[in-house]
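$ fold --in a.seq
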Amino acid sequence: MKNRKELRALEDMTLRSLKKVNDDLFMLEYHGDYSLDKLLEHGSKGILGTVAFMQKELKRTVPLNPAAGRFGCSAFNTVTERGERIMGRNFDYKESPCIILWTAPEGGYRSMSTLTSNFMLYGIKHARVDRAKRPLRLMGAPFVAMDGINEKGLAIAILEIKSKPTNQDTGKTPIIPPVAVRAVLDTCSTVEEGIAVFEKYDMHDLIGVNYHYMLADDKGASAVIEYVEGKMNVIRQKSPGERLTVTNYYLTPGADKKGGRGYDRLKNISSCLTEHPDGLSEEEAMRLLSRNTLHYHHKWMPHMVITVWSTVFDLTGRSQLTCAAMNYEKAYRFSLDKPLEYEEITLKETENGRQ
């Protein structure tokens, strides 16, 4: 157990690592242990319980947003013409900057993950995300990630379903969605290992909605995990290499789809993948994401709902290509092996028009 002085030194290293790519995209490298193993042993039925745990471990107040609101989101997996496994993902939520986070937990796998600054109470898009304003909120970053990729080539993304929240009570240790995402990134190397994490815990959803999860790995496996009437269901590939697509719509046969959204996105993405059985390049996958975004004014809240980020995970190369705030002219490549570095890429249409 580190003493208070050691914790402060690691905290300071984390806060000083914050770097701005542009107004919509930031980078952060987390230093130190965020005690995932203890949290998984202790369990939590809500974000407030997770916050209380972190405050005890870090010996400081770490406020987080309980993720009220409505997600959109889309995800799919495919392969490039060179055989690289990739997974595409749109995160649709209220307009805000996003943060690419590098973590390297002791005894766990290194990963890159992405989160919205809203979850650390930075507020709307133009709120300042810096270490001078509400600095300790950044220390909660590992437990609000919405997607990511780890050093084993495993990626995971969380998506919303407009359905009754899952609150399992089977006697297992309780867990909430973003902690499940963190557990998969830190401890799993394959899709099957990721599924086993979800099977081990009782899921307790965040405010008001249900969630499902897409996983894909560098061996070509993929799966979608859903909770229907409190029971976990896994949708696996019917054959090796099959592409899966998920939006905000149940894939489980017989599940109530009345409250589902995003069937048009589900159909559009699935059709494109079917039309290109040889796969898509990373840039083509990004263009596919750009054609399936959300952008509208919230009905009863004073903010816009947009595609906050679009990411194509290279599961083979352990990197990701990301566009923020629906700017698809500029993409940024981040590598797991190069924290706080990036390559700026100008996206162009291909000659054959496939994008």
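$ fold --in b.seq
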Amino acid sequence: MGVTQRKEREREEMRRRILDAALRLFLEQGFEKTSIRNIAEAIEYSPATIYLYYKDKNELLFALHQEAFLKMMAELGQVSTVEEPFERLTEMGQKYIKYALENPEMYDLMFVMTAPMETLDCRDEVWEDGLKSFCLLKTVVAQCSAAGYFNNQDVETTSLTIWAYMHGLVTIYLKNRLNMFGDDRQLERINQSFRQFVDMIQKETEHPIWEHR
């Protein structure tokens, strides 16, 4: 490995250490209470080192936010190979659950953690990464509608309703609220609830899919 390649690898390793420390502290202490000095102490370097990579903690949060959404969008994008629209929507829901449960810290940062919207590179109060993922959901819902599902209901409202349910479902799991049942059936409850939700929104269609699975 040449000198240039080694230096680039070292830079990427340092960038990763900074991002990982920032994510942990943002979630533990909150965005407002976390400082560049805190992050520097966590990786045992000076604040000046972090400023070589990121100009401030807003840029750090934005980098983490983008990384998280790119990963989720790649996961959700896999449903494009599913031909039947409602099955595609159902598969997207399963992918959403999978992403949230496998990446709980990232999901928390994306949808739960309180942070000023301007840190997410918003313009005119538009949350760009969130809007892109929501538009992906709207596209699939519109395809379902064109295929005869949802009885010509408003696509945006239907999409928001679906997302609100999915977010609520994974959040009560990730925040350990399902522990109130006092058993080890948390994942089973998640899956059962999701199946029931699918049945509910599909009940007026003529093509139930769960019986074929």
